[in-house]
Design brief:
By secondary structure, the protein is an alpha/beta fold. The chain has helices spanning 3-6, 9-12, 16-26, 45-65, 81-94, 117-125, 149-167, 170-173, 192-201, 205-208, 212-219, 230-239, 257-265, 271-285, and strands spanning 31-33, 70-74, 99-103, 105-106, 109-110, 129-133, 178-181, 221-223, 245-246. The strands form two sheets. A seven-stranded parallel sheet has the order 1-2-3-6-7-8-9. Helix 3 (16-26) packs parallel to helix 13, helix 4 packs parallel to helix 5 (81-94) and helix 5 packs parallel to helix 6 (117-125). The two termini are 30 Å apart.
Length: 291
């Protein structure tokens, strides 16, 4: 989310009650709360740690106040490693969060960066569900004045992060982490051939990708927030099975959830596939929010 989006009335005036109203209009049983851009890191580790705790405690209050309607992908004070490890412990052991929320990059470091290995080691140990939301890397925030960063850069940064996890060997090294990438995996389905060619030419692929790019991509999960359109959905389903695809929204910043429901209904999916994407796949990952 850009600074301008943060100032928009629908974001500024958001409340949990408005989320419930939006869900009811769209026929959505439950939503998982997470922090979006610009995130929590403003260069001050203590401030990021404190803000992460406040956000997670607030979301836990939403869960208590609206039984069955909300879950939590806990916010992390990344890239502060020790503070993030403490917040993982608190979120998982005290709040019983449904998963951990991360961004695609922090500064100019993507998720496969070796600096982040202690966090991924702990997430792997816990077999954590990790929701990855895109952001804008410093390189690319103001490339085209007429095109806001979310239009192109969010999908691109998602793809950079997926590539980082694959080709650094992070995805294979920590196989117990269950990932959800937002917005249909960004541009990854369209760059699939290039991923394969890079894998084929990699001298150390046996070490970093012992089971191959295809295996790792098919393990990941992908939500359809702002992606419920026949073109990206058909591309994604050529890459991964229906079991890996989840309904998603960007409420409030991305508009009403009912738009995503209508978009998905127009994708021409078989009724069983539609049920899986709208509900059944999520329940396997998020049993606590079953409603």
């Amino acid at each position: 989310m850009t600074g301008n989006e943060l100032l928009s009335p629908r974001v500024r005036e958001w409340t949990p009650a408005k989320s419930v109203e939006d869900m009811d209009r769209a026929g959505v049983a439950a939503s998982i709360a997470s922090i979006t851009n610009p995130g929590l890191w403003l260069g001050d580790e203590e401030a990021a740690r404190r803000l992460a705790r406040e956000c997670n405690d607030y979301a836990a209050g939403m869960i208590r106040d609206h039984p069955g309607r909300f879950g939590l992908f806990a916010a992390m004070p990344m890239p502060a490693i020790d503070a993030s490890l403490r917040e993982i412990e608190y979120a998982c052991d005290t709040l019983r969060a449904d998963g951990i929320g991360l961004f695609t990059s922090y500064g100019e470091r993507w998720l496969g960066n070796a600096d982040f290995a202690p966090v991924f080691e702990e997430l792997d140990r816990r077999k954590a569900l990790v929701f990855v939301h895109p952001t804008v890397a410093p390189c690319c925030a103001k490339l085209i004045a007429e095109v806001p960063p979310p239009v192109v850069e969010y999908g691109t940064d998602t793809t950079r992060s997926i590539a980082s996890l694959l080709f650094t060997g992070t995805a294979a090294r920590f196989p117990n982490i269950r990932y959800i990438f937002s917005h249909g995996g960004g541009t990854a389905p369209y760059l699939f051939e290039r991923f394969l060619r890079l894998e084929q030419g990699a001298k150390d692929r046996a070490e970093r990708l012992p089971r191959g790019v295809v295996h790792e991509l098919k393990k990941f999960h992908y939500d359809l927030a702002l992606t419920a359109n026949p073109v990206p959905v058909s591309a994604l389903l050529k890459l991964v099975p229906v079991s890996q695809v989840l309904f998603g929204t960007d409420f409030p910043s991305g508009g009403a959830s009912v738009e995503g429901v209508k978009g998905l209904a127009a994708c021409g999916l078989a009724p069983s596939d539609l049920r899986a994407i709208e509900r059944e796949n999520a329940l396997r990952l998020l049993p606590r929010v079953k409603a």
